[in-house]
Amino acid sequence: MKKYIALFVLLMILSTFLQAEVRYLTEEEYKDLSKEETLKYWEALENEMMMLQVRQANTCPQIAENELGIAALKEDIILLDQEYDVIYTRIMNSIGTVSHSELVEFDQKLNEIKNKLDYYDQLPNSELYKSNQEIKNFIAQYEDLKGEDLAKVPQFQQDFAEIDSRIEMLQENMYPYGEYYEDEYAVVKGDYLVKIAGYDHIYNDPEKWGIIFRANRDQIKDPDLIYPNQVFKIPRGLPSSWKVYKGECLWTISSYPEIYNDPFQWPKIYRANTDQIKDPDLIYPNQILRIPRD
């Protein structure tokens, strides 16, 4: 028991030492010390020496452990470099012979895209909103560039990651909260609603296919059946009104992601439309309901 008490006292003393700070005296200051002050100064120096010895004792095993970790990481890096070389060779073989001038030209195209993004970054959201068609064309051209064989070259992957991130931010800024309008999309062979919703320039989210379906129920009778050359409305932003369709109720409408994405918010719609909704359980097709956005 005494052994544990002594250890505890020692730890408390060391803790005090660790928190103490010694101000080193100049030669002139030291000469001016009294005998008692000199003894206290030497005691402080001895305490600090003990503190440094404790820190050294604690650090040495950690250094050894870190050195082992560094060695293991170096081995991992060697293996990753070997894997990178193999993948790089496969990619370049799949592309075929690529000249230096082609690589330079492709790099210039990426820099032009970055410069265009710099320009868009300087525009306020209101101007981006007005320029949405121009921006969509710009994004479509970028998507075409990503489809080229040279886009597979590893040295360009970091550029693509940066541009993808910036374009995602640009798209968010194009459609500020509450502003609503509709794009158009012409269906091509092989399209289906889930696929269309997943396109980067549409919603980049396949699960939002229902937004397209609901906006085009006048020409989509079965969401599993769409046809080439059909032109669909693509809602952007959040609508401030809603046309009721057969089978809908306030609960259902409120659950739509383009409304509140939460069925329990249905009372908001009811309270905003008490002039035409007498019973919240009774709404009718073709009613135009106000959707509060406050």
Strand proportion: 5-15%
**Count of alpha and pi helical runs:** 11
Largest sheet: 2 strands, antiparallel
Helix content: 55-70%
Low-confidence stretches: 1-19
Q: Mean pLDDT, nearest integer?
A: 82
End-to-end C-alpha gap? 69 Å
Overall form: extended
Rounded to an integer in angstroms, the radius of gyration calculated over CA atoms is 34 Å
Order of helices and strands: HHHHHHHEHHEEHHE
Number of strands: 4
Summed up, the domain count is: 3
| Major sheet strand order | 1-2
Q: Structural class from helices and strands?
A: mainly alpha
Characterize the quaternary organization of these chains.
Answer: single chain
Helix-strand layout with pairing:
Elements: H1 2-19, H2 27-31, H3 35-95, H4 100-121, H5 125-130, H6 132-146, H7 157-174, E1 181-186, H8 193-198, H9 209-215, E2 231-236, E3 241-243, H10 250-255, H11 266-272, E4 288-290
Antiparallel strand pairs: 1-2, 3-4
Helix pairs in contact: 4-7
